[in-house]
Write a structure and sequence with these properties.
By secondary structure, the protein is an alpha/beta fold. Helices cover 61% and strands 6% of the residues. The protein has a five-stranded mixed β-sheet, sandwiched between helices.
Length: 521
């Protein structure tokens, strides 16, 4: 067996050449059983094996399935997934050459899922639920390797319970799948550092490549892993193994980067620089992670844990936010996988607290456990309920479609203001088919776009003036107005030639019924 690198602080006893760090850690845990270590983390308990994987995965699965339909709502990004995944492969391929190449692998996966079972909102979100369960198991596996099975189980549970994890577990987008791939890639990274050799570095490279093809910003996880190696002061052979794997991931990503670079303005042009609230959230997470690291470093053997876990919530998010000051690219869900690091630190801290609690008297220990559990429920339950409501997302295309269906008449003209709001009805072709889309030049499938293309402003003006009633789908009042000629002419004609007959407010949108004077009834 190839000797494992000595990654522990200098004050620790040297690891025998014939043993890996994991084997030595297991013996140390066994030696400390008589010092009051809870039985849940004893390595020689066969019944406990696998619980650090099963318990977090089952918890995440239950949480993911709870309220998966989100009160029969769907927001516009999920609507895009639903529409695109239903396109024939030829049309889907044409779209990816124009926009959304960064999500191409995910769309292909969802195309296969919906071809096998077109189960509506459940089928749309089920892959994310399963991926989150896999990610929670991965957090448990990493935590068990670093701090024992109790810490791993708790870390996986913490990850599953995080409100942001619950939110994206029930979202028909790629971010939960990215998190699962990065998490298990990090597990392979840990194994490769401890057991240098091609097997684990190959697994690391494959998993990170998968994550990056699901979303390019998963590549930032490799920055966090590089910081881990630097903090551990690993031998050169470990650096060489990581470098070869990282180079392979980067080379494999080049085709996607070449295509998506040309789509960047269309793909991310809607983003602004990180808000003050985003910076504050990053600061809070970073401070909590650092404080947990400082607390854990007082314990023997915690160096490897903090070296791995601390860069995950800090490096990818921080780097992307700094870059976004010049080139706005930051959205928190793009680096969702960073929460695994915070979960690992929290799980280890909770395991440490549980072990210390054995020194307390039985009633005091029970009271403390009840208070901690009650506090967790009081804090997490409102957030858990919120992320399962339509109000947790920017809008609700289901509510928009119902409002249009109730207020429109067959043959009414319809205007989307701005044009990209056409996505609100594209998932409901029966509703859209009743209306005359007077501004549409080419459909989304014909134009290889997400929302289709629109006619010149003069043509839109002429077609709107020929209508007696217009259904206008707009953002809520107070939102910025697009400056494009087509959008200006829509607003001008409706204001000067029509009157508002009805205004229906729904979450994240409003449906306005316009008519010529005398045609409201």
């Amino acid at each position: 067996m190839t000797p494992a690198p000595d990654l522990r602080p200098p004050t620790c006893d040297p690891v025998p050449q014939e043993d890996t760090i994991t084997q030595q850690a297991d013996r140390e845990l066994a030696d400390r059983v008589h010092d009051g270590l809870p039985t849940a983390v004893r390595p020689d308990r066969a019944g406990a094996r696998g619980l650090h994987l099963i318990v977090p995965a089952v918890a995440a699965l239950i949480l993911g399935l709870w309220g998966i339909d989100r009160q029969d709502s769907m927001w516009r990004d999920e609507s895009v997934t639903y529409q695109v995944a239903h396109r024939p492969l030829g049309e889907l391929w044409g779209l990816l050459g124009h926009i959304d190449a960064v999500h191409g692998l995910y769309y292909l996966l969802m195309h296969a899922v919906l071809a096998l079972w077109d189960g509506g909102l459940v089928a749309l979100r089920l892959p994310s639920v399963l991926a989150t369960a896999g990610a929670a198991a991965g957090v448990g596996a990493i935590g068990a390797r670093l701090s024992g099975r109790l810490a791993g189980t708790l870390a996986g549970l913490v990850f599953a319970l995080l409100p942001v994890t619950q939110q994206y577990a029930q979202e028909g987008r790629s971010y939960a799948l990215v998190t699962a791939a990065v998490t298990w890639g990090t597990y392979a990274f840990l194994r490769a550092v401890r057991e240098p050799g091609p097997r684990w570095w190959t697994a690391y490279g494959v998993l990170l490549a998968l994550a990056c093809w699901l979303h390019e910003f998963a590549a930032l996880a490799m920055v966090a892993h590089a910081l881990t190696l630097w903090r551990l002061r690993v031998p050169r052979r470990v650096w060489r193994g990581w470098g070869a794997a990282a180079a392979g991931v980067s080379l494999g990503l080049l085709p996607l980067m070449a295509v998506s670079a040309g789509q960047a303005d269309r793909q991310l042009g809607w983003l602004g620089r990180p808000s003050m609230n985003a910076w504050l959230q990053f600061l809070v997470v970073s401070v909590v992670a650092v404080l947990l690291s400082r607390l854990l470093l007082r314990r023997r053997g915690a160096t490897e844990l903090t070296a791995l876990a601390l860069p995950l919530p800090f490096a990818p998010t921080g780097l992307l936010m700094v870059v976004s000051l010049a080139r706005p690219w930051y959205v928190e869900r793009y680096v969702l996988y960073g929460m695994t690091g915070l979960a690992l630190l929290t799980g280890a801290a909770l395991a440490h607290a549980i072990r210390r609690s054995r020194r307390l008297a039985g009633p005091v220990r029970a009271l403390t456990a009840c208070l901690a559990a009650g506090t967790a429920v009081a804090v997490l339950l409102p957030w858990s309920l919120l992320v399962r409501s339509p109000e947790s997302r920017k809008d609700d295309v289901v509510a928009v479609a119902r409002a249009v269906e109730d207020s429109a008449r067959d043959g009414d003209a319809v205007l989307f203001m701005p044009a990209r709001r056409r996505e609100w009805l594209l998932s409901y072709p029966a509703v859209l088919g009743r209306l005359d889309d007077v501004a549409l030049a080419e459909s989304p499938t014909a134009s290889h776009t997400l929302q289709g293309t629109e006619l010149p402003a003069d043509t839109i003006r002429r077609r709107v003036l020929a209508a007696d009633r217009v259904i206008a789908l707009t953002d809520p009042a107070g939102q910025p107005l697009d400056p494009f000629p087509q959008e200006k002419i829509k607003r001008q004609i409706l204001k000067t030639q029509f009157r508002i007959c009805d205004r229906i407010a729904v979450h994240g949108a409003q449906v306005l019924v316009y008519a010529r004077p005398g045609h409201c009834t």
